[in-house]
Amino acid sequence: MIEPGQQKQQRNTGHAQQEAQDRIELLERQGGPFVAAVEATRMPMVVTDPTLANNPIIYANAAFLEMCGYERDEVLGQNYHFLGGENTDPEVADAIDTALGARRSINIEVQFYTKSGTAIWVAQQVSPVKDDQGRIVQHFSSFIDITHRKLTEERLRRLTEELERRVRTRTKRLEQANEQLKEEVERRAALEGVLRAALEDKQELVRQKVFMIKEVNHRIKNTLQAAQSLLLVQASGESSATVKDALQSAGRRLARLAEVHELLYRTEGFQTIDVARYLDVLCRGLLTSFSADPDQVSLSLEADEILWGPDLVLPLALIVNEAVSNALKYAFPQGRRGHIAVELHSAPQTLYRLTIRDDGVGLPDDRGSNSLGLKLIDIFAEQLRGSAVLRNDNGAVVTVTFPA
After folding, report:
1. Which single residue of 147, 188, 290, 400 has CA 20 to 30 Å from 297?
2. What is the band of 372 on the pLDDT scale with cuts at 50, 70, 90?
């Protein structure tokens, strides 16, 4: 059963809608193409009539209906404030009414709600429309959907707040860290004199160590050269060809030992030596020393990237020197062409394997285990805490295995 008050309200709404419909028909008759253009535009627009009670909507274009989700007959006769909701700022509606009451336009942002209850933000422009006598006969409103922009602004606001919170937290932590750092600096400043003195002592020890190494190296070099000279002098006075050849061979070995030693301690930063680079320089030096024809004898080197101290590198280099020298001297007689390969790689069980092989004539039986060359290689292998094996396999092969 409908109460009398409700009946009166329904009659008023129906009356307003009828009046709005009459005004629309009048607008369409008077506006012609203008009304058709407004209806077709994608910008939401409404026209209200301030001469009627509650300033009802008398025209809403299709874009406005699409924006708010209402049918036209649900909108006509309503004050457009009906689109407001729980989060709509009442001061916005007051600002619009105040501006229109003062007969001036207003641009303002407001939150509306569609028929489905979805909140949207719009930028609304409301302007009074005057007749020929200057009387305000209509209010014209246009809307731009700025929901995406508002959501972006809200996200930016939240991000800004979170950033500011993090900055405050980080600033507090930095202040605490700065205080701790200040205390640490003050504590360390008290030790500065002691540390400076210790550093100066260390630098002096390093200088003394470098000087001693250079002095020892110089004396070793002089001793080797003196021994070589004595052997050569002794050889020149020998009538026995066998003894003379043995003395000269020993002199050449001492000369090569001196060269290996000099090359090692001439290496920049010799306390840690790039083994592959050092062996490459050594092998190229041996080719030059024996005047090896590159069209007759070639040499290749493959080595892992290793940094070792001189205590390991020196016996390793002497093994390579002895094996490559023997290959250059004996493996390729009478202009025979051939190849010498030097390889140094890691092996299982934390071992390293050094292999020097050639494809020459191989080892004759009279140069077996009692030869001086193999004995020297055995001695140097023992210095590496390893073992050496000499065999024939399409040429001579020297294999030395030692722990890393």
Report:
1. 400
2. confident
Domain architecture of the chain: domains with CATH: 4-147 (3.30.450.20), 272-403 (3.30.565.10)
Contacts of 376 (CB under 8 A, 6+ apart): 253, 318, 322
Residue type, 326: N
Find the range with the poorest average confidence among 306-315, 336-345, 387-396. 306-315
Asked if 386 and 400 touch (Cβ cutoff 8 Å), the reply is yes
Regarding pTM above 0.90, the answer is no
Query: Residue 402 contacts by C-beta under 8 Å, 6 or more apart in sequence?
Result: 351, 352, 354, 381, 384, 385, 386, 387
The H helix count followed by the E strand count for the chain is 10, 12
* Distance, C-alpha 115 to centroid of its chain: 52
pLDDT at 42 over 70: yes
Block residue for tokens 């493996």: 331
pLDDT at 250 over 70: no
Q: Can you name the residues that pair with 136 across neighbouring β-strands?
A: 130
Distance between CA 127 and CA 13 in Å, rounded?
25
